[in-house]
Design brief:
Structural class: alpha/beta
Largest sheet: 3 strands, parallel
Helix content: 40-55%
Number of strands: 5
Number of helices: 7
Distance between the termini: 50 Å
Strand content: 15-25%
Length: 148
C-alpha cells in the first residue's frame, strides 16, 4: 500500500477523533438556515471525508460539501467553491466565503467572493489582515451582522 492510500485509510478510520464543531457554530448554522441562507463547505480534505464529516456533524444544514477530488483543483483554486455555488444555485456576487487561513483568503479572492476571516481557527488576526480579509470576526454570532 502506498503512503497516500495508507493515510486515506487511517484518516477515514480516525477522522472523528478530537473533531467537533467550534463553540457557537451549531447555533449560528441554525440561525442562518432559519433565515434562508444557503450553506456549503469546501475543504482540501479528501472529498469522501468532507462529505461524511458534514453529514455526521451538520446533517441537512450543509447541503453542499466538497473536498479534494480528481475533478477539482485544491484550494486556493476556486473549483470547489464554484461547484458549491452551482449546487446551491447561487452566484459569486450573492455569497461570502468564511475561513481561517491565508489559503481561504486566496480562495475567496480567486472565486470573486467577499472573505470573512475568523480568529478562532488556525491563523491569527494579523495573518487574516495581511491576506486581505474584508471582515474579521472573533465569534460565530458576529457573522449574522455582516450578512444582514
Amino acid at each position: 500500500m502506498d503512503c497516500l492510500s495508507a493515510f486515506k485509510q487511517h484518516y477515514a478510520e480516525n477522522m472523528h477523533n478530537k473533531t467537533a464543531p467550534y463553540v457557537g457554530i451549531m447555533p449560528l448554522l441554525n440561525k442562518l438556515k432559519v433565515n434562508g441562507k444557503k450553506l456549503a463547505v469546501v475543504s482540501n480534505k479528501f472529498d469522501d471525508a468532507v462529505k461524511a464529516l458534514c453529514r455526521d456533524y451538520f446533517g441537512d444544514m450543509i447541503p453542499a460539501a466538497y473536498g479534494e477530488s480528481a475533478d477539482a483543483a485544491r484550494k486556493p483554486a476556486p473549483d470547489t467553491v464554484f461547484k458549491a455555488l452551482r449546487a446551491l444555485g447561487s452566484a459569486p456576487g450573492d455569497a461570502v466565503y468564511v475561513g481561517d487561513s491565508e489559503v481561504d483568503a486566496a480562495t475567496a479572492k480567486n472565486a470573486g467572493l467577499t472573505f470573512v476571516g475568523v480568529t478562532w481557527g488556525f491563523r491569527s488576526r494579523e495573518v487574516l489582515e495581511q491576506n486581505g480579509a474584508d471582515y474579521i470576526i472573533d465569534s460565530p454570532d458576529e457573522l449574522t451582522s455582516i450578512l444582514g
